[in-house]
Design brief:
2 domains; 9 helices; alpha/beta; Rossmann fold; 274 residues; 42% helix
Length: 274
C-alpha cells in the first residue's frame, strides 16, 4: 500500500497529464491533489510508475482517472439558505432589468445543483425565461448529470434540504421511482446545455447574468483561483452575480475590488465595473 507521495512524483504526474492529455492540474492545491492521488493508487493497486505507464499508454484510462480525481460529492439544495437568497433577493434583482437571462453552472458535477436551480425557477414561474449552461471537466460525470438519475437513498438528504429551502411542494413532485432510482422529470432540463469545459485552460465562455462555481475553487491554489475569478469577471455582464462556496473567499483576489459583497454568509458577489 502506498503510504506517501513526494512533491517530485506529484509534479511528474501533473506534467505528464498536461503534456499527454491537455489537462492542467499543476496549479491545483497540492494537499487535495495528493489525497486524490493516494486514493487512485490504493483503489487501482498501482505504483507511481505503473500509474504513469497507464496514463501514457492507455488512452481510455484518462477518463477513469478524471472521474476519480475530480470531487463529485454534492446535494440538491445544498446550503438551503443560499437558495432562499437566490429566490428572494438575487433573481428578483436580475428580473428588474432582464425578462430573460443566462446562468452558468461552472463545475456542475452530477447535476444536482442544476436541477435545484430549475426547480427554484419553475416554482417562481420563470423557468422558460432562463437559459442554463452546465459545464464540467469530467465527461463521465456530465453524462450522469444529463441522465439525472439518483439513488433513492440520496433523495432523503435532498428532501431535507428542500424542506429547509421552503419549496412549494415536495421533491417527489419532480421525480418518479424506477428500479431503486429517482428519475428526475426530463422537462426540468429542457433549458439546459451540458458542455465539457476546462476552467483552467479554456478561454472566455460567453456572457452571463449569474455564474455559480461553488466548492470548486477550494481545490485550486491561490494563483489559479485568481485566474479563474478573472475569467468569471470577463464572462459576467455588468451587475451580474457570482456565487462561490461557503468556505471560499475572494478577499485577496486581484479582481475583488471589481465586485461588491451581496451576501457574505452565502458568498454571493456582484460585478460593479469592468
Amino acid at each position: 500500500m502506498i503510504q506517501d507521495i513526494d512533491i517530485k512524483d506529484l509534479k511528474r504526474i501533473t506534467e505528464l497529464i498536461h503534456l499527454k492529455h491537455g489537462y492542467d492540474f499543476r496549479n491545483y492545491a497540492m494537499s487535495s491533489f495528493k489525497r486524490r492521488m493516494l486514493r487512485i493508487l490504493e483503489v487501482g493497486g498501482l505504483t507511481i510508475d505503473s500509474l504513469l505507464e497507464k496514463l501514457t499508454e492507455e488512452k481510455v484510462f484518462i477518463d477513469d482517472f478524471l472521474d476519480e480525481l475530480t470531487v463529485n460529492v454534492t446535494e440538491m439544495f445544498r446550503d438551503p439558505g443560499f437558495w432562499r437568497i437566490l429566490r428572494e433577493e438575487i433573481i428578483p434583482g436580475i428580473l428588474l432589468n432582464n425578462k430573460q437571462f443566462k446562468i452558468w453552472h461552472a463545475g456542475c458535477s452530477s447535476g444536482e445543483e442544476v436541477l435545484s436551480m430549475n426547480i427554484l425557477l419553475k416554482e417562481m414561474g420563470i423557468k422558460d425565461q432562463v437559459k442554463i449552461y452546465a459545464t464540467d471537466l469530467d465527461q463521465t460525470i456530465l453524462e450522469k448529470a444529463r441522465a439525472a438519475n439518483y439513488s433513492l437513498k440520496n433523495m432523503e438528504t435532498n428532501e431535507k434540504n428542500y424542506i429547509r429551502f421552503q419549496g412549494k411542494g415536495t421533491l417527489k413532485d419532480y421525480y418518479t421511482e424506477v428500479g431503486g432510482k429517482a428519475v428526475m422529470n426530463k422537462e426540468l432540463l429542457s433549458n439546459v446545455s451540458f458542455q465539457k469545459h476546462d476552467l483552467v485552460l479554456s478561454s472566455s465562455f460567453g456572457k452571463f447574468d449569474m455564474i455559480l462555481c461553488r466548492n470548486v475553487m477550494i481545490y485550486f491554489n491561490q494563483a489559479l483561483q485568481n485566474e479563474v475569478v478573472k475569467k468569471f469577471h470577463t464572462d459576467l455582464n455588468k451587475y451580474g452575480y457570482l456565487a462561490i462556496g461557503a468556505k471560499e473567499s475572494m478577499i485577496w483576489c486581484d479582481y475583488a475590488s471589481r465586485f461588491i459583497v451581496v451576501n457574505q454568509e452565502e458568498k454571493v458577489y456582484k460585478k460593479i465595473r469592468d
